[in-house]
Design goal:
The protein has 153 residues and is mainly α. It is built from 5 helices and no strands.
Length: 153
């Protein structure tokens, strides 16, 4: 895998999947419980497809907020210090499925991240996202879940 995975989960638009992580419905706007088997599967998939660019500890690329000389974005972290949790599930899923192709010209940069729609199934994408979410503190998980709820009809 190359630097294309630089943008695994940074500026993420569109498409909430009905089975997002297979999570049970949340009560009182609390985030859904994460399934330990789903998290373990997601961790394995993350190692195979994402670690090269986003780091083994979800730390992202150094100076991730700076663009590369060619105008491309660097791989952001997916841990609590990053930006991933600012996006809804729909945006995160779309980012993984479409990669850098999802970015419009007005974003101010490009992404070399590959599209994973033909590489990972929807369930595998959900597992990777659940793994990432499992590393966040509860307040960040709640914030990200609220973002997801705001986008639902």
């Amino acid at each position: 895998m190359n630097r294309i995975a630089t943008f695994f989960l940074f500026i993420f638009p569109v498409g909430l999947l009905a089975a997002c992580g297979g999570d049970a419905p949340a009560a009182d706007n609390n985030p859904p419980a994460l399934d330990p088997q789903q998290i373990a599967s997601g961790a394995e998939l993350y190692t195979l497809h994402c670690t090269e660019c986003h780091g083994a500890n979800l730390e992202g690329e150094a100076d991730w907020k700076l663009q590369n000389p060619d105008g491309s974005f660097r791989a952001p972290p997916h841990d609590a210090d990053g930006h991933t949790w600012h996006h809804s599930d729909a945006q995160l899923i779309d980012a993984v499925r479409r990669g850098g192709a999802r970015l419009s010209a007005d974003v101010g940069g490009t992404s070399a991240m590959p599209a994973y729609a033909d590489i990972l199934t929807d369930d595998e994408i959900a597992a990777v996202l659940d793994y990432i979410k499992s590393t966040w503190p509860e307040d960040i998980r709640r914030y990200q879940w609220e973002r997801t709820l705001q986008e639902q009809p």
